[in-house]
Write a structure and sequence with these properties.
With 287 residues, the protein is α+β, with helices and mostly antiparallel strands. Helices cover 30% and strands 20% of the residues. It has a four-stranded antiparallel beta sheet, with no helix packed on it. Strands 2-3-4-8 form a four-stranded antiparallel beta sheet, covered by helices on one side. Strands 9-10 form a two-stranded antiparallel sheet. α1 packs parallel to α6 and α5 packs across α6.
């Protein structure tokens, strides 16, 4: 799933290519992708894109007096930039293409979604706050005012483990499964550590790891073409998705805890005092 760094890179990429250009066609190929109906998607046509914003994992295309196009790429969605869009109108079908936006220059982009779980979401709204997911977002961790005091306030009284708290979009916007693993590895903390139990020193370390991990990921992605952002993300990860590989910090083997629909990765030496975390799903499979 694209997370804050990849969506921020897409925002920068699209800002350079969309700002000042007119949307001449907005074509839904998979009707299920549209989550709003008023204004209609066609209301975007004839309007010039004036800015591209990011709200957590949401992309937001602002136009000159017209509606805004807000997109969440979900787990398997992606944006493909086209220097020359194909001629003709795409036909609805079983392929991955969900939506096409064309500019007056003949350029534009496609939104696609792989797999059978269709969660890609497109909203046409007058205000991004009309999108429920945007309205519920917590603070952006790369905002200038996000500091130790802000993080302490967010985690005060939090009953969940750190992994779950970091992934909660209503608590902190933009962090998903991959970067929560990376942040906790950088902070040398167990993903199962209770969020409300941090000492002032641990809180300081977590805040620094959070900011540094996301900032470095954004910098790595800056200037990378949209089509190569997924590969860039994977190349920069130290523990997430690297089960069985050596930890780049200490050399211990990266381990995994599996859940019904996801998994987390961690380094025992760096994060849990050398102790493997309980993996209840794996334990059941071994019985």
């Amino acid at each position: 799933m694209p997370e804050l760094p990849e969506v921020e890179a897409l925002r920068q990429f699209l800002t350079e290519r969309l700002t000042g250009h007119e949307i001449v066609r907005a074509l839904p190929v998979a009707i299920s992708v549209l989550k709003t109906y008023d204004p209609p998607l066609t209301a975007l046509e004839g309007h010039v894109v004036t800015a591209v914003h990011r709200h957590g994992k949401f992309l937001d295309l602002e136009t000159d007096g017209g509606p805004r196009l807000v997109t969440h790429l979900a787990r398997a969605g992606w944006l493909h930039w086209k220097d020359r869009l194909p001629d003709g109108v795409p036909r609805p079908g079983k392929g991955p293409l969900a939506l096409r936006v064309a500019l007056e220059t003949g350029t534009g982009f496609d939104l696609t979604e792989a797999g059978t779980q269709k969660r890609l979401a497109v909203y046409v709204v007058r205000d991004p706050a009309e999108v429920p997911g945007v309205a519920r977002l917590g603070p952006d961790p790369l905002a200038d005012d996000f500091d130790e005091a802000r993080l302490a306030a967010l985690l005060h009284g939090e009953r969940r483990q750190l992994k779950g708290a970091l992934r909660d979009q209503s608590l902190i916007a933009g962090i998903g499964n991959a970067y929560s693993d990376e942040i906790l590895h950088a902070a040398r903390m167990s993903p199962f550590k209770p969020a409300a139990s941090l000492t002032p020193e641990e809180l300081s370390g977590l805040c620094a790891a959070l900011r540094e991990t996301l900032t470095e990921a954004v910098e790595r992605s800056r200037g990378v073409a949209a089509g190569r952002l997924k590969a860039e993300k994977k190349s920069g990860l130290r523990v997430h998705g690297r089960t069985g590989e050596p930890c780049p910090v200490c050399g211990d083997t990266v381990r995994e805890v599996s859940f019904s629909d996801s998994s987390l990765q961690y380094c025992p030496t760096c994060q849990t005092g050398g102790r493997p975390l309980a993996d209840r799903r794996l334990s059941r499979l071994l019985k």
